[in-house]
Amino acid sequence: MTITLPIASHWQKILNPALARLTGPVHGWFYTIQANGDLAVSLVTLILLGFALGLLGGLFGGASGFLMAPALNIVGNIPYNVAVGTELSLLVGTATVANLRHRGLGSVDYKLGLLLFLGGGLGLGIGVQLLKFLTYAGEISLWSQKISLVQLIMSLIFGGLLAWIGRQAYREARRVPGVESFSAGPAPPPISAVFRLQELTLPPRVSLPRSGVEAVSLWLILGVGAVSGLLTGLLGVKSSFILLPALVYLLGIPMFISLGTNLFEYLILALFGALIHSMEGNVELILMIILLVTAIPGSQCGV
Amino acid sequence: MTFGDWLAAISQSTAPAGKSFGPHWAYVILSLMIPGALGLIMASILKAVEKIFGIKLGRDDI
Q: What residues pair up with A213 in beta bridges, in sequence order?
């Protein structure tokens, strides 16, 4: 059984003008491109994919976000802009679940969360515009084959990121606890650089009483938010891997409050991202529903 | 018309061919409301499962 994806079909026809000259359907392993250029993807494949990505998310703590867009692109031939937009809309759902399940812990610094969102919203807007620029950038010839620029650049970015994550995981796995000399783990954080940034006194400075921070430069908070928002807007991934260390080491926020604030900021950022991506026509509603209802049970099985 | 057909209908661009994507207002609203509502339902189901079976499920998301 297959389902036709209207948004992915729309963008596919724009990204691959050659589809207009199709004389019959083209069959991939898990998808079919109809003669009229519409994309139909196997429903069972999407269900299994959503469950598997949720399972990986549960096992590895959210790292599956990096896999979702490339997996949708490879398995379902879904254009990157649609994969990213759909993932961001899906993250509204997962962030809602996470916030509701963490509710009552009282660990959210709402002032910090809103300030992070100010920077994050700006970064996210830039990320979405970058993706739009790439989507409309056309095709290039590579080894006598035409390929859309967005496909090439996004594949390279995701490929590089996944290679880096794989390398980190490999080094972590090789590390033997208690044996300093054998440790092949990541280099220690550049403490001096962190302290230099912490001492940034560029006004205006804001106090965060809930987090126990007397004064910190507003620009530092906005900058941290902007970088994480840029990654979220461009790649559709949860950028907690940047935001959490930055909150703890750079802004000096206690870990307990960082976790809650990160979840809160992430929900409003995901809502904003889904709004912008939907205005650009990047959200595939049917796909998002299938992935959401399969990924969440999957993530519980992976815990 | 099924729900899927309706979703497909509102997912079509309202802009003329050759122009940037023109979203239907219902499409934009549903892009925010469907995941929010589904998240609410899923969180309730997980809470119910925890209560019924007396187990503690994970709190991580994907």
A: A208
CA distance A162 to A182: 25
- Rounded distance between C-alpha atoms, residue A167 and residue A36, angstroms: 43
B/e letters for A272-281, b = 16+ CB within 10 Å, e = fewer, are: bbbbbbbbbb
At A51-79, the pLDDT tens digits run: 998 888 877 766 667 888 999 999 988 99
Q: How far apart are CA A260 and CA A15, in angstroms?
A: 40
Residues 6+ apart with CB under 8 A from A74: none
Chain B residues interacting with chain A (CB cutoff of 8 angstroms)? 4, 7-8, 11-13, 21-23, 27-28, 30-32, 34-36, 38-40, 42-43, 46-47, 57-62
Taking CB atoms and an 8 Å cut-off, how many pairs form between chains A and B?
128
Chain A positions touching B42 (Cβ under 8 A) are: 93, 97, 292-293, 296
Q: Where are the alpha helices (DSSP H) in chain A?
A: 6-15, 43-60, 65-76, 80-102, 110-135, 149-174, 191-198, 218-235, 240-245, 255-279, 285-301
Helices (H), A77-109: 80-102
CA distance B17 to chain A (A): 10
Taking Cα atoms as reference points, which of A72, A79, A224 lies closest to residue A149? Answer: A79
Burial class (CB in 10 A: 0-12, 13-18, 19+), A202: exposed
Q: Kindly report each contact of residues A191-197 with a partner whose C-beta sits within 8 Å and lies 24 or more positions away, as own/partner.
A: A194/A249, A194/A250, A197/A250
- Angle, CA of A91, A94 and A99, to the nearest 5°: 115
pTM of whole model > 0.90? Answer: no
Rounded to two decimals, the ipTM of the complex is 0.91
Encode burial over A9-48: b for 16+ CB neighbours within 10 A, e otherwise: bbbbbbbbeebeeeeeeeeeebbbbbeebbbbbbeeebee
